[in-house]
Amino acid sequence: MGATIDNLLSPGLERSCDELNSNDLTESVLNGDASMQDKTVELIWNALDNFHIELPSWGFADTGTRFGKFTQAAAATTLEGKFSDAAHVHAATGACPTLALHVQWDLPNGLKDVPEVQDLARRFAIRAGSINPNVFQNQDYKYGSVGNPDPAIRRMAIRHIVECIAISGALASRDVSPWFADGSNYPGTQNIRKRIGYFEEGLAEIHAALKPGQRLLIEYKPFEPAFYHTDIADWGMAVLLAKAAGPQSFVLVDTGHHYQSQNIEQIVAWLLHKNMMGGFHFNDRRYADDDLTLGSIDPYQIFRIFHEIRIFEWEHQCSADIAYMVDQSNNLKVKIEEMIQTACTAQELYAKAALVNHEQLAKLQQHCSLVDAEETLRGAFWQDVRPAIQAWRKRQGLPEDPMQAFRTSGYLERITSQRGKKKRGGLASYA
Ligand SMILES: [Mn+2]
Q: 62 near 400, Cβ under 8 Å?
């Protein structure tokens, strides 16, 4: 562990807002301040060199709302299609080298499907990412999975997640991230404490199956589909269960899984402080778990989360071991375009967070210079990082405009025609 806040501080530092604002990239360019511009570009490039965000395989398939779904001719119907689509997003952005897999949808035969996934990963140069068990879809899970009062159902759920750990091991992917829909809809219908015990027991057994280096990421959600109580409803419950499970267990923060107005970056700060921050499922929302495109509603929220991570890393002089993943469900935008938009937005917001002057901020916080501290944060957020990101892309041999490059590649037209024909053919056979 490196420098602490205290030994980074030097007394008597107070800067005016005007001085702080002179850090603005646009202004420094206008003033011909080449060194400031170079430093800003260097910060952004270093940040992007080390920033990756994992795409969800289900983001390329036809998914929808609980009221129905609007299908797209170009949506992937096979795992090969999902890998191929993900490879195009990565080729356009350079930010998405891994694909999260959902066992029930992508590996319906479990371990037997591993060779096919390995083959696809090689062919498309996209690595298998986090493995997502499914203990919420089968009819057996009507009253819960690991929290079900029926020991046979609990056993079935545990066995499934243990198999997912084996799949993850075989694919050399690191994280297994179960989400539990477990809960109840009416007061008095379930014993909440008994179910806590089932989760403690079940997760400990699951944890025991982890090999060295593997991680179990526990995701929480306050409500939906359960509307009275959810067994893992918030980050505190997730931390306690992860701690009870064992040292390779961490918490997964899905940005859509919070009550309105909850301070998510504070949760992130706590998880970092307690060394329990495992990963993110990024998405945006206006009301509940809306699964909208990252940064589409509140980009400042995502920036603030990235800032908490960056300042933690600066204080500890290390990089936090966090899996950045996308978990979105979009059925209106063109799916691949939405993923390119997501990856680019994530890069922009991460780059902005990299521009916060941590040394200056620490001093201002220590002196309770409220306006100046806040302006230090806001100043970074409002910088236009896009020219520097464009330059980074050029240096990486990536297209300078990822969306434009994708649109001119002809890929969308090709898959729309090929997959559309197959789908129409499929429907025709029922006629
Ligand atoms: Mn999620």
A: no
Q: What is the pTM of this model?
A: 0.91
Task: Express each pLDDT in 309-335 by its tens digit.
Answer: 999 999 999 999 999 999 998 889 999
The rounded percent of the chain whose pLDDT value lies above 70 is: 90
Residues 6+ apart with CB under 8 A from 301: 255, 264, 265, 284
How many angstroms is it from 177 CA to the middle of ligand 1?
9
pLDDT in tens, 280-290: 999 999 999 99
Q: Does a cis peptide bond (omega within 30 degrees of 0) precede residue 115?
A: no
Kindly indicate the confidence band of residue 65, based on its pLDDT and cuts at 50, 70 and 90. confident
Q: How far apart are CA 131 and CA 173, in angstroms?
A: 8
Averaged pLDDT for residues 376-398? 98
**What's the residue count for the chain?**
431
Q: Hey, which residues does 282 pair with through a beta bridge?
A: 326
Alpha-carbon span 349 to 362, nearest angstrom:
21
Q: What spacing in Å lies between the alpha carbon of 77 and ligand 1's midpoint?
A: 21
Residue 21 or residue 343, greater confidence: 343
Q: 146 CA distance to ligand 1 centroid (A)?
A: 18
Q: Which helix (H) or strand (E) holds 346?
A: helix 335-354
d(CA 283, ligand 1 centre) in Å: 9
> Contact, 256 vs 283, CB < 8 A?
yes
Q: How far apart are CA 281 and CA 302, in angstroms?
A: 11
Report H helices in 4-150: 5-8, 17-21, 25-30, 34-49, 79-93, 103-106, 114-124
CA–CA gap between residue 275 and residue 279 (Å, rounded) = 12
Instruction: List pLDDT tens digits, range 113-158.
Output: 999 999 999 999 999 999 999 999 999 999 999 999 999 999 999 9
Dist. CA 374–CA 372, nearest whole Å: 5
Nearest C-alpha neighbor of 324 from the set 98, 109, 148: 98
Higher pLDDT, 20 or 39: 39
- For CA atoms 101, 105, 110, 115, the dihedral sign is negative
State how far the Cα of 280 lies from the Cα of 303, in Å rounded to an integer.
14
Res. 18: pLDDT tops 60: no
Residue 101 has which token pair?
Answer: 């897999």
Cα(254) to centroid of ligand 1, in Å?
Answer: 5
Nearest to 280 by CA among 247, 323, 221: 323
